[in-house]
Amino acid sequence: MQPIKTKSGEYHQRWRLIKDALARYGVVAGGLGVIVAIVLIFFYLLYVVYPLFISATSEAVSEYAVPEQTLGNTLLLEMEEQNEMGARFTDSGQVAFFETATGKTVSTQAVAIPEGTHITSFAQGSPINEGAVIYGLSDGRAIIVKHQYKVTYPNNKRVITPSLKYPLGEQPLVLDDSGAALEKIAVKVGESATTIVAKTANTPEGPGKIRLINFQKEQSLFADEAALTRTDSVIEQSEAGVADILIDKDESNLYLVSNDGQLGFFDISDKSSPAIRQQQNVVGAGQKITSVAFLNGDISLMIGDSTGLVSQWSMVKDKLNRPAMQKIRSFKVSDKAVVSIDAEQRRKGFMTTDADGVVGIYHSTAERQLIKERVSDALPTAAVLSPRANALLVQSADGKMHFWHIDNEHPEVSIKSLWQKVWYESYPKPDYIWQSSSANSDFEPKYSLTPLVFGTLKAAFYAMLVAMPLALMGAIYTAYFMAPRMRQYIKPSIEIMGALPTVILGFLAGLWLAPFMEEHLSGFFALLVIVPVGVMLFAFAWQFVPKTITHKLSEGWDAALLVPVILLSGWIAFKVSVPLETFLFHGSLRDWFKAELGIGYDQRNALVVGVAMGFAVIPTIFSIAEDAIFSVPKHLTVGSLALGATPWQTMARVVLLTASPGIFSAIMIGFGRAVGETMIVLMATGNTPVMDLSVFQGLRTLAANIAVEMPESEVDSTHYRVLFLAALVLFMFTFIFNTLAEVIRQRLREKYSSL
């Protein structure tokens, strides 16, 4: 007999089909939306990171005749901050200021060179903050000049007015009383002191000398101008062959360079008694030093030789903790001799010019060649990088001036600087370092992602080491052995732990758990022994309990009896830890680790993170694994038991194998949760980006590093983009790991689906 269809029944059936279709399309739309969101996140991260790996570019802007060629040969080229005005210092004592884009002369100013003398040497001081230059004269005197630029805005138009300033007065300074010409000279002008080192020419009275003169400003309360206190000394070094003299910015170290490759390193902290620290050869046999310059910060020397090699020599502490110059890297910039080296003023980059007219720009720490261009067919006679390193001015031997624009935003980043060991200035050896900020103006950013990846994996490892055994064993017992009524309370209680805010867990870990663990370190290790022993003793004693009592306990409620046993065992572990620590380790366990094993102890360390983050990960692993085990079809377990297998054999050989895809998913999701955790590791680790396997040392993870530094980074800066690169690495790591996990899970499902 056919059922009678009514209009109401047809309506409800049609409405059910509509709801099914809506649900199906909603699920599909939601899934596609998640995929689209993930893809968009990936491409946005890639969009922000991509500029880090774009090569630097250069473009010729203009070419014109050298301004005011009649004033003499160029000793130095300079550019001001805005790249709008250049300066040409000549050997006649004239300074020509001109527009860099057109070559139009703005003004010509004469340095106060005394009549009857001529310039015999010239040197540039630090170019930062109104760079000073010094002229050595033929009568043993010298004059120091600073070039400065005043910016005004008449009628809302920027006008740059150049001028010369004499920081020690217009009267020349007498450096050599005998009147011998100054053949080589160097100067460093500070706010309160000025140091000059000059090599004098041979005279009938005797050979030349290397003189050190220091002027110290002393401000009096009753005088308008500061008085100068002078200190003179002589460097005990043969002046023959000295081709270049360099003084560092602190006016405490002096370098004498000779053409034959000798470098003399002197301590001039005591201006009245300079002392030699080191004398060594810095180029190969048969080679000559053709150029030398300080890298930004005046810690390293960039030395170019006749074979086209530029080597970086930096001050490093030797085995006796004494400063010594050591070569830390080199660059093959040309097959021709390196004519000049000009360092960037704000980064660790430098520009080279070779004898073939090729200009190259490099970054020392990243060991990158950024630009290599032939600016002129003629030999360059002078070249300079702008203060912001975004423009280049070159004078060639054919009387032309070449002005180029440079786009070089992120030279600090390379595969080596991100992932390999790098030898940074003032470090004893190459290392992995993350240090993106510093109060020191000579700071060099260090963007190694390796310690952050290491810290991420270390934190996740110790968290999983704590969480996996507890969560999986708890899931197995709850799903397979526990009484159903007890499970109704236990499972929701553990799952609700996952709702705890991680910032609260991090707060408790940092302010309570870390100090408590430091004070009771031996108690935590005693837990690993005393609690299992206590449980085993209780289990052993339980079999002697009268059957009349044990039969009153319903099956599956055994775990309730272990709760007080575990609590009591834990209390005993912490109570006996102090006398045990005193008896076995003669005091503190932390001190014993340090003295006997050389293992230090930081209060906020990986052990604290493992416990705190393991507590956060346990609910995730437990919930998914318990559902997977509980969902194993009952006919499998009943059939196994019917064939004579014990409950433990059934659990190990049937239940776990069938539930293995779900258990594996639980572990992978828990691991992903640990890898991406931010607040707990942020508050409980000390955020020290070190690479140490010790469980007692701190760490810094990728996620915590992004959370800490992103608010302080300048938008579109190198630091900003490297942080996005860290986010991309974390994204890719999670994506690849989860993809592999899904592949393994599917294979496990196919393998055990036939059970």
From TrEMBL:
Membrane topology term: Multi-pass membrane protein
Please state where this protein is localized. Answer: Cell membrane
Membrane-crossing residue ranges in chain numbering = 21-47, 459-482, 494-517, 523-545, 557-574, 606-625, 654-675, 720-741
Its chief place of residence is membrane
Tell whether Transmembrane is among the UniProt keywords: yes
Q: Which UniProt keywords are listed?
A: Membrane, Transmembrane, Transmembrane helix, Transport
Q: What is this protein called?
A: ABC transporter permease subunit
Q: Which organism is it from?
A: Candidatus Methylobacter oryzae
